[in-house]
Design brief:
With 344 residues, this protein is an alpha/beta fold. The chain has ten helices and 18 strands. Its cofactor is Zn(2+).
Length: 344
């Protein structure tokens, strides 16, 4: 089969190769991949590498397709089923995190697209527990968006809760930010989306998706806007979805005293944080790392019930043979969620 393989650490070292088609072992499901989304972590793996990447490995962790074959003992799926896959490939099953359902913290966890082979391939194998049936009303493109949406669900519905009528600010109108904003709206919040002037089309899309207010921070003072909606207190919750140091500083500045700050971005390298602000203003910082199994079912239900418009964040679907162009579109912010079609 054809697959996009990161064959060793370091810049580049990614190429489309012919590799053996995996056979499902006992308890595993093999899916024919129809859509696989490109995440910014994939870009970082491509350009830099680093932990938790363990090459040689096939990248890609936002995946939907059709069951192609099942291993011995699999009872929930059969060939032809429309499915998506969660990202967990292996966990220990016995540590305190596994017992709590917090698989994202299992010390032995292996994820697809970084340690185990992922979805930038014609076929993918994963454990039965990580495979989910895709309703007929949900497209394969939407199915591949469930992973980033589940990150927003975990952040705003599981790590903490959004109160009705609370003011939530989302910094960064990328795919993650737009999905997280819709999760906040689904819980009844007043949502402000902030971005830069080059993000104009994304900010316009946010308004079409029902976001209450958008701010181009090059043209308006975000702190002033936020205070105008909060009796000068600041936002009840701020979600940082850019991964940029200035946005982290801004997030602390606009969060109300005793407010909630959620760093959702992928930070490939350490950044400085003003710890004094956390202490003095009693900010409640809730780290949010990927998702847990319950996040996925909630995310899929939000799409199925029309509470989240996943189609709106999908801008491109390119053949996997054109992966370099697809990666360039993501890197140059020429689209939102860009997907690969491994059948082409």
């Amino acid at each position: 089969m054809k697959a996009l393989v990161k064959f060793e650490q370091g810049p580049g070292n990614l190429e489309l190769r012919e590799v053996p088609t995996p056979e499902p072992a006992a308890g595993q499901v093999r899916m024919k991949v129809l859509r696989s989304g490109i995440c910014h972590t994939d870009l970082d793996y491509y350009h830099v590498g680093g932990a938790p990447l363990k090459p040689p490995v096939i990248l890609g962790h936002e995946v939907a397709g059709v069951v192609d074959a099942v291993g011995e003992g699999v009872v929930q799926f059969k060939p032809g089923d429309r499915v998506l896959t969660q990202t967990t490939y292996r966990v220990c099953g016995t540590c305190r995190f596994c017992r709590r359902g917090q698989l994202n913290h299992c010390i032995a966890r292996q994820g697809i697209g970084s340690i185990a082979n992922g979805g930038f391939a014609e076929y993918l194998v994963n454990r039965e527990e990580s495979i989910m049936k895709l309703p007929d009303s949900v497209s394969f493109e939407e199915g591949a968006v469930v992973e980033p949406l589940a990150c927003g669900v975990h952040a705003l519905m599981e790590r903490t809760n959004v109160c009705v009528d609370s003011v939530v600010v989302i910094l960064g109108p990328g795919a993650i930010g737009l999905l997280a904003a819709q999760v906040a709206k689904a819980q009844g919040a007043f949502v402000i989306m902030a971005g830069l002037t080059p993000d104009r089309e994304r900010l316009d899309l946010a308004l079409k998706l029902g976001i209450d207010r958008t701010v181009d921070i090059a043209k308006e003072d975000l702190e002033t806007v936020v205070k105008s909606y909060t009796e000068n207190y600041g936002a009840d919750m701020v979600v940082e979805a850019t991964g940029a140091r200035p946005a982290v500083d801004m997030s602390m500045k606009i969060t109300a005293k005793d407010g909630i700050l959620i760093p959702m971005s992928y930070f490939p390298r350490p950044i400085e944080v003003d710890y004094y602000q956390i202490k003095q203003r009693e900010l409640n910082v809730f780290g949010s790392s990927s998702q847990i199994p319950s996040s996925w079912s909630k995310a899929l239900k939000l799409i199925e019930n029309g509470k989240v418009n996943a189609k709106a964040v999908i801008s491109h679907v390119l053949p996997m043979s054109e992966w370099q162009e697809a990666f360039a579109i993501v890197e140059n912010k020429q689209g939102l969620k860009v997907m690969l079609d491994p059948t082409r």
